[in-house]
Amino acid sequence: MTEQGEPFARDGRPVCGVCPSLRLPGGRFDVAERPSRNAPFDPATGHRHTAAGVPVCVHPERVGLPAAPYATDGLPLPWETPPPVEAGEVPAWVRTALDAAPPEACDDVIQQAVEILLAADPDTDITAVLRAALG
After folding, report:
1. pLDDT in tens, the chain (135 residues)
2. For the chain: N or C, fewer Cβ within 10 A?
3. Taking Cα atoms as reference points, which of 3, 9, 6 lies closest to residue 31?
4. pTM of the full predicted structure?
5. Element containing residue 68 per DSSP (H, E)
């Protein structure tokens, strides 16, 4: 099977040598909290897979994505998740999105956050909100 897109773990993340993020783009594999029987290791392929054959990473902290069935359920990656409408929800969204986002997506996340915050209150100290979200 030919995969389109660059591997997710192309930025030096300390992932395992068999992590699907080394060969698949984000969203093309699931991320589980830890190893489990739901995604057993297959010695023949050297990878973990769901019963449906979806590759699974079992170290969310290493790959930089929160645990979720991205490929199984077709979920968006954190930085692709639509931003919140409420300004009060922006800091948590920014933190989650930027923790996982590749460098090329960070500017878009910050720009969306700025637009939401300024629309809610034009006098908002954007720098203070972003520092609090990322600090």
Report:
1. 334 678 888 767 789 888 999 999 999 999 999 999 999 998 888 889 999 999 999 999 999 999 999 999 999 999 999 999 888 999 999 999 998 888 889 999 999 999 999 999 999 999 999 999 988
2. N
3. 9
4. 0.82
5. none
Phi/psi of residue 87, nearest 5 degrees: -60, -35
DSSP 22-64: GTS-TTSSEE-SS--TTS-EETTTTEEB-TT--BEE--HHHHT
Residues facing 42 on adjacent strands: 47
What DSSP assignment string belongs to 93-122? HHHHHHHH--HHHHHHHHHHHHHHHHHH-T
Nearest one of 53, 70, 59 to 34, comparing CA atoms: 59
User: Tell me, what amino acid is at 16?
Assistant: C
